Automatic annotation (TrEMBL):
Protein name from the UniProt record: Class I SAM-dependent methyltransferase
Regions annotated as coiled coil: none
Pfam families found in the cross-reference section: Methyltransf_12
Single GO MF descriptor: methyltransferase activity
GO annotation (BP), single: methylation
InterPro entries: Methyltransf_12, SAM-dependent_MTases_sf
Keyword Disulfide bond listed: no
Methyltransferase type domain span: 71-164
Keywords: Methyltransferase, Transferase
Length: 281
């Protein structure tokens, strides 16, 4: 399936995406393996991957006792995992059903978290307080049109000396044809201001379908992502690229230690993720 490149008003695109993400909630409640959180020591795979990296850049080498804001938290599995690591967490998302599911999971499993319903681009005006850490991970910035506005929210949420962490799908990965028999460029790496209009009733996990299949995403090269954070006044302290993903981007990907990767002979040809750690001085 090839998306259409379209001119669309941000609010209209946001509304369509919100409907789609609302529809995903019951599907993801079934597919995310939430029963595993009945074990009080269980952490999500994403947090088990991200936490050692994040904590290596913290003065205390731990999130325990720190105030953490998790942007685009969806149904809260990573937020609750951060709480289990000892953080005081606030989860932020624009989907009311997702936050309802997150709150129910937290209550059922004895986790403590604050949930705030707002668009990530309005986060500073909706979320109280300043944070030692702002965290976001996997499947985030492509849903946003304006990364300068996104980065400004992050900088404003952080306290002095606070740390921002993101791990996400690599823009080079998103330029590839997920259905091709070889690594083949199909989609633009650089954006031109237009959105990519997708019509896909499936989601990235589980077998169900959504009632609102139309979504809008924006390609953002690494230069734009890093540049937005720098323009917001943050200082880059770590950058890395990874060879695996926590979801199966392409049917050709193979499972590797619970994650997904290209076949062995292709793993050094293209990055799958990037990780950025930045600080507000």
């Amino acid at each position: 399936m090839t998306p259409r490149n379209v001119e669309i008003d941000w609010e209209a695109a946001r509304h369509a995406n919100q409907q789609n993400w609302n529809d995903r909630v019951p599907l993801h409640e079934d597919a995310y393996g939430l029963d595993a959180f009945d074990d009080p020591t269980h952490l999500s795979d994403v947090i088990r991957h991200d936490l050692p990296v994040l904590e290596s850049f913290l003065a205390s080498h731990s999130v325990s006792g720190l105030d953490v804001c998790h942007l685009q938290c969806h149904i809260g599995t990573d937020t609750i995992s951060l709480a289990r690591a000892g953080a005081t967490v606030t989860g932020v998302d624009f989907s009311r059903p997702a936050l309802r599911a997150a709150a129910e999971l937290a209550q059922r499993t004895g986790a403590t978290a604050t949930w705030v319903e707002t668009d990530v681009l309005e986060a500073r005006s909706a979320v109280k307080g300043e944070f030692d850490v702002v965290y976001t991970s996997i499947g985030t910035v492509t849903w946003l049109e304006d990364l300068d506005r996104w980065a400004a929210q992050i900088a404003a949420l952080l306290c002095r000396g606070g740390t921002f962490f993101i791990r996400d799908g690599h823009p080079s990965l998103y330029a590839l044809d997920e259905d091709a028999a070889t690594l083949t460029i199909r989609y633009p790496y650089f954006g031109d201001g237009r959105a990519q209009q997708w019509d896909d009733a499936a989601t990235y996990v589980g077998d169900g379908t959504v009632a609102h299949p139309r979504t809008f995403e924006w390609p953002h090269p690494l230069s734009e992502i890093i540049g937005a954070l720098l323009r917001a006044g943050l200082r880059l302290i770590h950058f890395d690229e990874g060879r695996t993903l926590p979801w199966q981007f392409s049917p050709r990907m193979v499972e590797v230690d619970g994650d997904w990767a290209w076949p062995e002979g292709e793993r050094n040809l293209v990055p799958c993720t990037y990780t950025i750690v930045a600080r507000r001085d």
